[in-house]
Inverse folding.
């Protein structure tokens, strides 16, 4: 007989289930301003502590403290706050539209708005983002992407710029540096690295920004991306959005229980940071740091954005089945919109009255865009792109066999 104890398989469990409050002590939160800021040309070895700490700028009173405080004007912060508010209002109205059966499917980024909106301010024209389905803030923070156009894609109507070929929320905007969203999670992480490598091969100046969630880091594409980014020093920012939940699976199941996702970057030879994703200033500062490294041929940076998915995974999900209903209110990193608003108030550049006024203005703006988009059709009325469009955008010059098929369709 063996003298050894029986082996036991460890299955990670979340620290909170429906009916009991979540213990968020597993997050290991650093004090605002406590994390050091290394020089941009630092090696990956010198970022090991930053892969386990949490870079934060805004303290509990809304003041910006520490070495990561970015140089940013109040006007730029106001634009960021408005973009976050608009994104949240947009999400709320589109969620209602889905419940009204005008849209087949929707995914919010509630609670995560600061990550995409602040990151967008660190990028330049020509850079390419390879996003997931929760980076709509990259588009909604821009002035050249009409909300009506986004809504038409969601409604799959006659004015859908993608002609009904993509699921709702899976936008594609070459002119905005927004690569087509893929429903196959993880694929775009390595595509971002490949795009960045191509930019370097051509001697270009544009960088890439790839996005993945905590759950999809368990996919092989994540690890392949890290290997190629490290070996070829690709000019890319590798963003891991750790919002604690991959559908109903807690982030520990993907390997985040006793370590950080940022630590995987260090292990792969990549400079890595772990950042408060609900702190607009911290997101802006870390994004600028990573972008500067990429443009200076110093290689990739992996950033783990610690945040919380406040809403359901999608309109097909009911989070009350697997987590406490009040988790969002109790999440220790707070609400990114409220935190930036509080900071602007401390600067004398915002007020509660202005916040209410801007809220009303943005609600009216989003409602008007929705009315215009719905005038081109919704899922309810069958105003969809013509069947003839399935032949478009495939070949520069349509070959004879496709012309015959189109004629046979009688369209």
């Amino acid at each position: 007989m063996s003298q050894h104890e029986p082996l036991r398989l460890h299955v990670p469990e979340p620290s909170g289930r429906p009916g009991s409050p979540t213990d968020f002590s597993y997050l290991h939160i650093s004090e605002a301003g406590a994390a050091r800021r290394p020089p941009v040309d630092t090696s990956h070895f010198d970022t090991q502590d930053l892969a386990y700490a949490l870079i934060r700028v805004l303290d509990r009173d809304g003041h910006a403290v520490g070495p990561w405080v970015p140089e940013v004007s109040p006007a730029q912060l106001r634009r960021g706050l408005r973009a976050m508010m608009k994104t949240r209002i947009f999400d709320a109205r589109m969620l209602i539209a889905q419940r009204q059966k005008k849209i087949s499917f929707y995914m919010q980024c509630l609670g995560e708005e600061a990550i995409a909106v602040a990151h967008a301010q660190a990028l330049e024209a020509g850079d390419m983002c390879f996003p997931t389905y929760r980076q709509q803030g990259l588009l909604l923070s821009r002035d050249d992407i009409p909300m009506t156009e986004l809504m038409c894609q969601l409604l799959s109507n006659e004015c859908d710029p993608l002609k009904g070929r993509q699921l709702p929320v899976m936008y594609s905007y070459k002119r905005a540096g927004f690569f087509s969203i893929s429903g196959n999670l993880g694929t775009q992480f390595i595509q971002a690295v490949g795009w960045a490598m191509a930019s370097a091969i051509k001697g270009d100046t544009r960088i890439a920004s790839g996005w993945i969630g905590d759950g999809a880091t368990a996919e092989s594409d994540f690890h392949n991306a890290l290997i190629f980014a490290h070996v070829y020093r690709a000019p890319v920012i590798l963003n891991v959005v750790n919002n604690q939940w991959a559908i109903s699976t807690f982030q520990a199941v993907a390997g985040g229980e006793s370590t950080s996702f940022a630590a995987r970057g260090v292990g792969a030879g990549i400079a890595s940071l772990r950042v408060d994703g609900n702190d607009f200033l911290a997101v802006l500062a870390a994004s600028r740091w990573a972008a500067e490294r990429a443009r200076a041929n110093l290689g990739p940076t992996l950033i783990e954005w610690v945040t919380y998915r406040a809403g359901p995974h999608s309109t097909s999900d009911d989070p009350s089945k697997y987590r406490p209903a009040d988790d969002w209110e109790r999440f220790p990193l707070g609400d990114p919109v409220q935190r930036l608003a509080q900071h602007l108030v401390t600067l004398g550049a915002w007020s509660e009255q202005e916040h209410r006024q801007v809220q009303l203005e943005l609600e009216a703006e989003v409602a008007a865009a929705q009315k215009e988009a719905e005038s081109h059709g919704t899922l309810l009325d069958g105003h969809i792109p013509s069947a003839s469009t399935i032949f478009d955008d495939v070949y520069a010059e349509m070959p004879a066999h496709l012309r015959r098929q189109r004629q046979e369709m009688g369209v």
